[in-house]
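<goal> How does this chain fold?
<body> The protein record starts here
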Amino acid sequence: MYKALLGATVIAMVLSVSACGGSTTTVKQTETQGKQLLDLKEAMDQGVITEKEYKSTKKKILSGK
């Protein structure tokens, strides 16, 4: 039983490591514009981004880019 468990663990580790690189991942954007704008505003309010960055990014979000 120990050997079977060890073997399964090794196989799982090899499969997880082999999936770490070499392929391209596409991320589907599921956030709404409203959610993006709220998150953006919060980032500006917290000082994470400047007002200039806020306005620029807001413009991009609203234009759909």
